[in-house]
Amino acid sequence: MNRNFQKDIDLGLSAKNKTLPSKYFYDEIGDALFVEIMNMPEYYLTNAEFDIFKNQNQELIKALKLEKNTFFELVELGAGDGTKTKQLLKTLNDQNYNFKYVPIDISENALNQLKKSITKELPTVQIHPKQGDYFNVLSGLQTSNHPIIVLFLGSNIGNLTDERANDFIQKLDYNLKKEDKVLLGVDLIKPKSVVLPAYNDAQGITKRFNLNLLTRINKELNANFDVNTFDHQPEYNEEEGVARSYLVSTKDQKVLVKGLDKTFTFQKGEKIHMETSRKYNDLILNGILAGSSLKIIDRLTDSQHLFADYILEKY
Ligand code: AVJ
């Protein structure tokens, strides 16, 4: 993990167009900031998907073709704090479905908190957390012959470029068997006036979320980033349906990263690409599914049609 971190940070800061992987946002401070983001008025994604899980969980169960007498495994990639999933778990549990819940997250900290809260709120739900990177845990999926439902919510897939998302889908597809399902939550393409504020909130929480990765590099790789010399700059390209966040150096400066034994030079106005957040429609999603045997069989949206949970089935 630490080795990968070191290598990825080096690669990103050494690139002609500097970039840092957004998956490293989620240390303990990053997890807490992300919880704050989900509670911000501008960040409509979480409320919209929560609306689906709260008000349409019976429709979700039906769309997933779940059966009460067949044991299944609910595997959640990037489970986070599990607020949405708990709505579904509660209904499944109340209605005597026979299943186990396997939340997977890159953050050990988030998983520990989730396990605690599930054990407390839903003591009869079987929970088996696993720590890891999505790409790496996929190969461990198919160890049994019962049905698997993969939950990949919150538009987490949107952090991947379309090419990487397609790779991910191929790998997921390869590790599933016929009739397994994927519940894929994605943010829908919509006007800039709605999307941009979600990444540029009035309180500056998203800015702190981005800057926290520089602080993490300071701590873990013994660097000397001065976070006060970087501005937060989110952009949204409406035709493409892609939001991108950048940190912009406000002056010419050098940053020493002792853990890499390197100095990086920043020009005034130079950007570090921090995150890509893709938005979707059927056409784009079908492009990402192309070449796999995962097909869209259903789609639920919130009352305002901001967000969609797609149900994919392996053929
Ligand atoms: C958790 C990846 C869906 O891209 O919208 C929120 C992360 N970044 N605000 C997103 C995030 C800035 C979020 N995802």
Automatic annotation (TrEMBL):
- InterPro entries hit by this protein: EgtD_Methyltrsf_superfamily (IPR051128), MeTrfase_dom (IPR019257), MeTrfase_EgtD-like (IPR017804), SAM-dependent_MTases_sf (IPR029063)
Q: Which SUPFAM superfamilies match?
A: S-adenosyl-L-methionine-dependent methyltransferases
Q: Which residues form a coiled coil?
A: none
**Superkingdom, taxonomy of origin:** Bacteria
What protein name does the entry list?
Answer: L-histidine N(Alpha)-methyltransferase
Q: Name one Pfam family in it.
A: Methyltransf_33
User: Domain Histidine-specific methyltransferase SAM-dependent spans what residues?
Assistant: 5-313
Which GO molecular-function terms appear in the entry? methyltransferase activity
Transmembrane ranges, per UniProt, are none
A Gene Ontology BP annotation from the UniProt entry = methylation
Q: Which UniProt keywords are given for this protein, alphabetically ordered? A: Methyltransferase, Transferase
